[in-house]
Amino acid sequence: MPMTAHLPPAETRAPDSFESWLHASHADQPQDYAHYLARQMAPMIRALMLMATAAFGLAVLASHFLRPSSVPLPLRLLPVPLLLLAATVARRVQRPRSLSLLTLTCVLLLEIGINLSSIGRPQGQPLVLPGLLLPVASAVIWFSRRDFIVAMTLCVVGPLPMLLLGTTHGIQIFQYFVYMAIAISLSAVLRAFMARTLFAQFRLERQLREQANTDGLTGLLLRNRFLELAQLALDIHSQQKPVCMLFLDADHFKQLNDEYGHAAGDNALVALAAALRTQLRQTDLIGRIGGEEFAMLLPGLNLQQARERAEQLRLAIRTIKRPDGQLTVSIGAAEYRQSGETVDALLARADQAMRQAKRGGRDRIVSAVGN
């Protein structure tokens, strides 16, 4: 006889909210992906800042000896210490937006430096060439499409003062726009390729983390991960509100496996997990502790409220049909003692209560002694 409750497809399952809040590991959260990009690209961004600073300084010094300018050398080198400062600050920046603003500032400083170096020269066109390199050189370091558009706009607008106010001819300005269009087009291709590669890597790493932390059959948290997150939840919630633990065990599960095979047992576990998940609140945690054993952490509920939730779970699970009748569970409930009790101790008390429910006839709820 088929089960009447079925596990939703993996892509439609509601994620555990505390896991999402703690690790922010879902791809539909742009902020999480931005932090991932910041961790991955920060070393490259800092290296490019230093390289750009060195290249700009050397270019200014070389042009000073080859073709002196009316602008004093210290003024033309003014962007160099500012670029070094930005690169130094970037080593301590963790937030994606701050790192992006620093990078955009470096592009702006380089454009200002190029304009300063062009003042007083009879032919400004050769000094436009460094500006043409900026879009391509910086194409792969922008976190968002908005940053990329702002950066490319700075690259286009930056050299315009030296072109429009200098001695360049209309043909040179036309050539500049043609070359810049080519440079930005190439930059867009490079950025698209890098963005797709990084997102694929981000998604793969997230999937590997989820596989390492969740049970492959039920999609619930594995024991160690559940205990780790439950301890964090206790630390957060226990000082201000009650917290309870439920320990659930499927009744006569060995008999089901022995008489109808492990496939029937797996179907029962999948349906049981789906029933538990339908009762999940945003602040709850749920995990598969053992073969047919499950645990739920219920922040904000006292023992009486936890027993009411347990009764709802018990009744929901009774609607699941197994080949030899109804699926039932024995449930133990325990409330956090507010005395530095660890999650392992809380789980052990709920486990003891569950065993008492087993001894009392199964398909029932028992509260831990001492609550």
Features:
two-stranded antiparallel ribbon, alpha/beta, 2 domains, 9% strand, 61% helix, disordered N terminus, Alpha-Beta Plaits, 371 residues
H and E order: HHHHHHHHHEHEHHEEHEEEHE
Q: Mean pLDDT, rounded to whole units?
A: 82
Q: Assign an overall shape.
A: elongated
Number of helices: 14
Q: How much of the residues is beta strand, in percent?
A: 5-15%
**Number of structural domains:** 2
**Overall SS class:** alpha/beta
Describe what is shown at a glance.
By secondary structure, the chain is of the alpha/beta class. 61% of the residues lie in helices and 9% in strands. Strand 7 (329-335), helix 14 and strand 8 (365-367) form a beta-alpha-beta unit.
What does this 3D model show about the protein?
The protein is α/β, with parallel strands linked by helices and 371 residues long. The chain folds into 2 domains: 30-210, no CATH class; 218-367, Alpha-Beta Plaits, CATH 3.30.70. The protein is built from 14 helices and 8 strands. A 6-stranded mixed beta sheet has the order 1-3-4-2-7-8, sandwiched between helices. It starts with 16 loop residues before the first helix and ends with a strand. The model is unreliable at 1-28 (pLDDT under 50).
